[in-house]
Design goal:
- The complex is a heterodimer of chains A (115) and B (112).
- Chain A is mainly beta.
- Chain A is built from no helices and 11 strands.
- Chain A has strands at residues 5-7, 10-13, 19-24, 31-37, 44-50, 53-57, 64-68, 74-78, 87-94, 105-106, 110-114.
- In chain A, strand 4 (31-37) and strand 5 form a beta hairpin.
- The radius of gyration of chain A is 13 Å and the shape is globular.
- Chain B contains no helices and 11 strands.
- The N and C termini of chain B lie far apart (41 Å).
- The mean pLDDT of chain B is 95.
- In chain B, 0% of the residues lie in helices and 59% in strands.
- In chain B, a hairpin with a 2-residue loop joins strand 6 (56-59) and strand 7 (62-67).
- The chains are: A mainly beta (115), B mainly beta (112).
- Chains A and B meet through strand 4, strand 5 and strand 10 of A and strand 4, strand 5, strand 9 and strand 10 of B.
C-alpha cells in the first residue's frame, strides 16, 4: 500500500504570495494532521481533520487554513506568505483521531522556501 | 502548557555501542508517547508508541520506557549501527487534545 503522499516536494515563493499544499492519506485513514517544522526544531501542530471536520487547531495565524475532502485527502493553504513561513510542512494520517492510540504515519513533507 | 525536552541535542558514538536517548515532559496527563526517526530531508517514521497505561514497548533492537509520574521516557538502542544515524524525536499526545507535541530531537551519529 502507498504511504502518505505530499505534493509538491519543493516550492519557492515570494513574500505576500499564497500557497496550497496537498496531502493524500494512507488508504483507509480518515484523520489528517498538518505540522510545520522549522530547521533544527521539532514539528509544530497546525491542524487536525477527521471525517472532513476540523478537530484541532494549533497556535498559528488566520493566514493558515485547511480542508479535508470526501476522499479524505487534504489541502493546507497559507496566504500573505512571510519569510518566517519557510519550513518543512508535514502531513500525517491515522485511522482515527490521534487520541485513539493509533500511530501517526507521516509523509516526506513539502519544503517551502520564501524569498 | 505541555513542554517536551530532549537531551542531549546531539550524540556521537562508535558502532556497536548501546545508547540511551532521553525525553522529558512537564504534564503527566498524556494519552500516549511516541518515538519517531527522521532522516535528513525526509518525513518521520514511527518507531514505538507507548500507551499511558504501559511501561515499555520493544521492537527489535529498540526499547522505549515510560514513567508518567516522573514525566520521563527513554529510548534504548542496542548494538548501534551506522544505519541508525538519524534524528530521533519524542512526542506526547495530551489527554485533552488530539495533537502531537514534539521535543526538538536528538541527532545521533554512529561512526563505523
Amino acid at each position: 500500500d502507498a504511504g502518505v503522499t505530499q505534493s509538491p516536494t519543493h516550492l519557492i515563493k515570494t513574500r505576500g504570495q499564497q500557497v496550497t499544499l496537498r496531502c493524500s492519506p494512507i488508504s483507509g485513514h480518515k484523520s489528517v494532521s498538518w505540522y510545520q517544522q522549522v530547521l533544527g526544531q521539532g514539528p509544530q501542530f497546525i491542524f487536525q481533520y477527521y471525517e472532513k471536520e476540523e478537530r484541532g487547531r494549533g497556535n498559528f495565524p488566520d493566514r493558515f487554513s485547511a480542508r479535508q475532502f470526501p476522499n479524505y485527502s487534504s489541502e493546507l493553504n497559507v496566504n500573505a506568505l512571510l519569510l518566517g513561513d519557510s519550513a518543512l510542512y508535514l502531513c500525517a494520517s491515522s485511522r482515527r483521531q490521534t487520541n485513539s492510540n493509533q500511530p501517526q504515519h507521516f509523509g516526506d513533507g513539502t519544503r517551502l522556501s520564501i524569498l | 502548557k505541555q513542554e517536551v525536552t530532549q537531551i542531549p541535542a546531539a550524540l556521537s558514538v562508535p558502532e556497536g555501542e548501546n545508547l540511551v536517548l532521553n525525553c522529558s515532559f512537564t504534564d503527566s496527563a498524556i494519552y500516549n508517547l511516541q518515538w519517531f526517526r527522521q532522516d535528513p530531508g525526509k518525513g518521520l517514521t514511527s518507531l514505538l508508541l507507548i500507551q499511558s497505561s504501559q511501561r515499555e514497548q520493544t521492537s527489535g533492537r529498540l526499547n522505549a520506557s515510560l514513567d508518567k509520574s516522573s514525566g520521563r521516557s527513554t529510548l534504548y538502542i542496542a548494538a548501534s549501527q551506522p544505519g541508525d544515524s538519524a534524528t530521533y524525536l519524542c512526542a506526547v499526545v495530551p489527554s485533552n487534545t488530539g495533537k502531537l507535541i514534539f521535543g526538538q530531537g536528538t541527532t545521533l551519529q554512529v561512526k563505523p
